[in-house]
Amino acid sequence: MKLVAIDENLIKKYCIDKEVLHKKGRPYVLVIKLKYKDKKLDFAIPMRSNIPASSPKNEYFPLPPRPSTQPKNRHGLHYIKMFPVEKRYLQKYRTEGNDFAILIQNIIDKNSKRIVAECQKYLINYENGQRSEFSTDIDLLLSIMKNDEKMR
Protein backbone atom coordinates (compact mmCIF):
# COMPACT_ATOMS: atom_id res chain seq x y z
CA MET A 1 0.00 0.00 0.00
CA LYS A 2 1.20 3.45 -0.76
CA LEU A 3 0.11 7.05 -0.50
CA VAL A 4 -1.18 8.38 -3.81
CA ALA A 5 -3.03 11.33 -5.23
CA ILE A 6 -5.94 10.80 -7.64
CA ASP A 7 -6.21 12.52 -11.02
CA GLU A 8 -8.76 15.34 -10.82
CA ASN A 9 -10.44 14.05 -14.00
CA LEU A 10 -11.55 10.90 -12.19
CA ILE A 11 -12.71 12.83 -9.14
CA LYS A 12 -14.82 15.08 -11.40
CA LYS A 13 -16.42 12.02 -13.03
CA TYR A 14 -17.09 10.44 -9.64
CA CYS A 15 -18.58 13.62 -8.12
CA ILE A 16 -21.96 12.50 -9.45
CA ASP A 17 -21.94 10.66 -6.11
CA LYS A 18 -22.15 13.39 -3.46
CA GLU A 19 -20.28 11.19 -0.96
CA VAL A 20 -17.07 11.15 -3.02
CA LEU A 21 -14.62 13.52 -1.36
CA HIS A 22 -13.12 16.07 -3.73
CA LYS A 23 -10.52 18.13 -1.93
CA LYS A 24 -7.70 18.94 -4.34
CA GLY A 25 -4.41 17.31 -3.35
CA ARG A 26 -6.03 14.94 -0.83
CA PRO A 27 -3.84 11.92 -0.10
CA TYR A 28 -5.32 8.45 -0.54
CA VAL A 29 -4.06 5.02 0.34
CA LEU A 30 -4.12 2.62 -2.56
CA VAL A 31 -5.23 -0.87 -1.58
CA ILE A 32 -4.78 -3.26 -4.43
CA LYS A 33 -6.86 -6.26 -5.32
CA LEU A 34 -9.74 -6.29 -2.89
CA LYS A 35 -12.62 -8.58 -3.74
CA TYR A 36 -15.95 -6.99 -4.57
CA LYS A 37 -18.78 -8.96 -6.17
CA ASP A 38 -16.39 -11.73 -7.25
CA LYS A 39 -13.96 -9.32 -8.92
CA LYS A 40 -10.54 -8.17 -7.75
CA LEU A 41 -10.37 -4.38 -7.86
CA ASP A 42 -8.04 -1.63 -6.70
CA PHE A 43 -9.53 0.85 -4.22
CA ALA A 44 -8.46 4.29 -3.05
CA ILE A 45 -9.19 5.15 0.57
CA PRO A 46 -9.11 8.85 1.45
CA MET A 47 -7.26 10.24 4.39
CA ARG A 48 -9.56 12.58 6.28
CA SER A 49 -8.61 15.11 8.93
CA ASN A 50 -12.03 15.41 10.52
CA ILE A 51 -13.87 12.13 10.80
CA PRO A 52 -16.71 12.77 13.26
CA ALA A 53 -16.10 11.30 16.71
CA SER A 54 -19.50 9.62 16.45
CA SER A 55 -18.34 7.49 13.49
CA PRO A 56 -18.24 3.77 14.31
CA LYS A 57 -14.67 2.59 14.83
CA ASN A 58 -15.05 -0.10 12.12
CA GLU A 59 -15.54 2.63 9.49
CA TYR A 60 -12.01 4.04 9.70
CA PHE A 61 -8.40 3.32 10.57
CA PRO A 62 -7.12 5.90 13.08
CA LEU A 63 -4.01 7.97 12.41
CA PRO A 64 -2.29 10.65 14.50
CA PRO A 65 -4.17 13.97 14.31
CA ARG A 66 -3.14 16.61 11.82
CA PRO A 67 -2.97 20.29 12.77
CA SER A 68 -6.29 20.72 10.93
CA THR A 69 -8.02 17.98 12.96
CA GLN A 70 -10.66 19.68 15.08
CA PRO A 71 -11.09 18.78 18.76
CA LYS A 72 -13.06 15.54 19.28
CA ASN A 73 -12.74 14.59 15.59
CA ARG A 74 -10.48 11.87 14.23
CA HIS A 75 -7.85 11.73 11.51
CA GLY A 76 -7.68 8.51 9.58
CA LEU A 77 -8.43 6.34 6.57
CA HIS A 78 -12.17 6.57 6.06
CA TYR A 79 -13.34 3.24 4.66
CA ILE A 80 -16.88 4.40 3.90
CA LYS A 81 -15.47 6.91 1.40
CA MET A 82 -13.36 4.38 -0.54
CA PHE A 83 -13.87 3.98 -4.26
CA PRO A 84 -12.62 1.80 -7.12
CA VAL A 85 -9.73 3.21 -9.11
CA GLU A 86 -7.68 2.26 -12.14
CA LYS A 87 -3.91 2.65 -12.09
CA ARG A 88 -3.98 5.23 -14.89
CA TYR A 89 -5.64 7.71 -12.51
CA LEU A 90 -2.98 7.39 -9.82
CA GLN A 91 -0.46 10.15 -9.26
CA LYS A 92 2.59 10.23 -7.09
CA TYR A 93 2.03 11.72 -3.66
CA ARG A 94 5.26 13.40 -2.62
CA THR A 95 6.45 12.46 0.86
CA GLU A 96 10.07 13.63 0.53
CA GLY A 97 10.83 16.18 3.23
CA ASN A 98 7.36 15.77 4.74
CA ASP A 99 7.95 14.17 8.14
CA PHE A 100 4.23 13.75 8.83
CA ALA A 101 3.61 11.97 5.50
CA ILE A 102 6.58 9.69 6.18
CA LEU A 103 5.18 8.91 9.65
CA ILE A 104 1.77 8.10 8.12
CA GLN A 105 3.35 5.84 5.48
CA ASN A 106 5.27 3.99 8.22
CA ILE A 107 2.08 3.47 10.24
CA ILE A 108 0.28 2.21 7.15
CA ASP A 109 3.16 -0.14 6.33
CA LYS A 110 3.15 -1.58 9.88
CA ASN A 111 -0.63 -2.05 9.82
CA SER A 112 -1.15 -3.11 6.20
CA LYS A 113 -2.61 -6.54 7.03
CA ARG A 114 -5.13 -4.98 9.42
CA ILE A 115 -6.10 -2.26 6.91
CA VAL A 116 -6.58 -4.78 4.09
CA ALA A 117 -8.64 -7.06 6.34
CA GLU A 118 -10.82 -4.17 7.55
CA CYS A 119 -11.33 -2.88 4.00
CA GLN A 120 -12.28 -6.35 2.80
CA LYS A 121 -14.71 -6.78 5.68
CA TYR A 122 -16.23 -3.39 4.88
CA LEU A 123 -16.75 -4.46 1.25
CA ILE A 124 -18.34 -7.76 2.29
CA ASN A 125 -20.73 -5.90 4.58
CA TYR A 126 -21.40 -3.35 1.83
CA GLU A 127 -22.30 -6.13 -0.62
CA ASN A 128 -24.68 -7.52 1.99
CA GLY A 129 -26.46 -4.18 2.31
CA GLN A 130 -24.81 -3.11 5.56
CA ARG A 131 -23.58 0.39 4.77
CA SER A 132 -23.65 3.87 6.16
CA GLU A 133 -25.93 6.42 4.56
CA PHE A 134 -22.73 8.43 3.98
CA SER A 135 -20.92 5.65 2.08
CA THR A 136 -19.84 6.15 -1.50
CA ASP A 137 -22.02 4.32 -4.03
CA ILE A 138 -19.51 1.74 -5.20
CA ASP A 139 -21.85 0.25 -7.80
CA LEU A 140 -22.52 3.66 -9.35
CA LEU A 141 -18.79 4.41 -9.41
CA LEU A 142 -18.05 1.03 -11.03
CA SER A 143 -20.62 1.77 -13.74
CA ILE A 144 -18.91 5.13 -14.39
CA MET A 145 -15.56 3.33 -14.55
CA LYS A 146 -16.98 0.77 -17.03
CA ASN A 147 -18.47 3.48 -19.24
CA ASP A 148 -15.15 5.32 -19.13
CA GLU A 149 -13.38 2.17 -20.38
CA LYS A 150 -15.86 1.82 -23.26
CA MET A 151 -15.23 5.44 -24.32
CA ARG A 152 -11.45 4.93 -24.59
Give a concise summary.
The protein is α+β, with helices and mostly antiparallel strands and 152 residues long. It has four helices and seven strands, in the order βαββββββααα.
Q: Note the total helix count.
A: 4
| Mean pLDDT over all positions | 93
Secondary-structure element series: EHEEEEEEHHH
The rounded Rg comes to 15 Å
The outline comes out as globular
Percentage of residues in DSSP E strands: 25-35%
Unreliable sequence segments = none
- Could you give the count of β-strands? 7
> Which structural class do the helices and strands define?
alpha+beta
Euclidean distance between termini CA atoms: 28 Å
- What characterizes the major β-sheet? 7 strands, antiparallel
Describe this protein's structure:
This protein is an alpha+beta fold and 152 residues long. The protein has four helices and seven strands; from the N terminus they run βαββββββααα. Strands 1, 2, 3, 4, 5, 6 and 7 form a seven-stranded antiparallel beta sheet that branches. The longest helix has 16 residues, at 112-127. The radius of gyration is 15 Å and the shape is globular. The chain starts with a strand and ends with a helix. The mean pLDDT is 93.
